[in-house]
DNA sequence: CCAAAAGTGTTTTTGCTACACCCATGA
DNA sequence: TCATGGGTGTAGCAAAAACACTTTTGG
């Protein structure tokens, strides 16, 4: 039989975007206590009849209006006193979205005073244990980017190699060598060169590329397959 | 204000051990419905007033009698229908312990009919979504072993290089070259050669080594530090 | 003396690092 | 014509992979 004790649980999302050459995170300002007016990660409670992945997608949609987003669970935070009003366990997800400067986000929730894209190295003190959650998400994507092509989720479909390098540099927080970066990126065929080039720029126009997921999946499958012995 | 809906949640543990050259997992046979008599991962509900890490340690202790064990959270499973009796979200941990063939485990819980160490490639169908949980844990430790010295958690304090190689081969599920393995393991100073050797074996006695955590921590710290640019 | 595992080096290949100049474009 | 970022190759080094025989021990 199921026990009598129950807990509340929630989802918190670390939503990454890339804009103006910087890695950013979507923060919201809370409208209600506890932590009224504090900055926090977008998050909300999970309904009794929805799965947690589902809930994460719903919450992401409510805060950004976006669907079909790269969204991945990375850790669950369950200290007894992490929420001042009672026991709340939270499952943390990170998401990567393409910020388009045109359309602003319309958080579809009354709990939010405002939202903004905060550069990752300027994050203020956050409500609850959200600073910890954010730190853990950064650690995770730094490791993840070395074996999984998450960088492309932050870029438009067509991008230049310099843009791609900027994403890697922002996530890894270090400068990379341009020639070595290009050599490596182009060596395995996961990028497809397009006929199109930039235009209207006051310097040599860069070639656009796109991510070739088909080729990537082949390589990845191979990586997962063990050799005969 | 906190919402009215609440859920139950639990911890499930994938407890790895290494014995007779094989990687094994501790399974228990359930004593009660649902899934009465089915094999399952050790797990139990989290109390209202305990943190989840705490809860994982308690549950691990109840099933093995062991404390101070390598125990790490790896994923949370929250499908609505994963438990037939109601909404139960489970936080999954994996643990690594040294199986000593002498002392048997004494599960300190009435919910268990029996327990046994099951080789990872002979796992039967498991209760709930435990097969999925187990698969995910394997994926995790396979990746983890390439950058974190978790293999030592499975071995006694003193071990031979062949034993160590066996652990790597069992986790990675492939054969490794003996000379290259030794070269690599001995190249970075994280193993300390002992004066002691095997005895009573009908072949050349192997030298014992132990893991030098001090040296490892130095290397690891260095790895986390970013270079000047 | 045999069976069984311990232990040991070298060569080849591959991937990573470091490094500097010319090109195309719009203003 | 100038400022700006786009684009390119090579050499040296280090790590990984491939590969087979001798040594020690107890029975």
TrEMBL record, chains A, B:
<dbReference type="Pfam" id="PF21906">
    <property type="entry name" value="WHD_NrtR"/>
</dbReference>
<dbReference type="InterPro" id="IPR000086">
    <property type="entry name" value="NUDIX_hydrolase_dom"/>
</dbReference>
<dbReference type="Pfam" id="PF00293">
    <property type="entry name" value="NUDIX"/>
</dbReference>
<dbReference type="InterPro" id="IPR036390">
    <property type="entry name" value="WH_DNA-bd_sf"/>
</dbReference>
<dbReference type="InterPro" id="IPR015797">
    <property type="entry name" value="NUDIX_hydrolase-like_dom_sf"/>
</dbReference>
<protein>
    <submittedName>
        <fullName>Putative Nudix-like regulator</fullName>
    </submittedName>
</protein>
<feature type="domain" description="Nudix hydrolase">
    <location>
        <begin position="8"/>
        <end position="142"/>
    </location>
</feature>
<dbReference type="InterPro" id="IPR036388">
    <property type="entry name" value="WH-like_DNA-bd_sf"/>
</dbReference>
<dbReference type="InterPro" id="IPR054105">
    <property type="entry name" value="WHD_NrtR"/>
</dbReference>
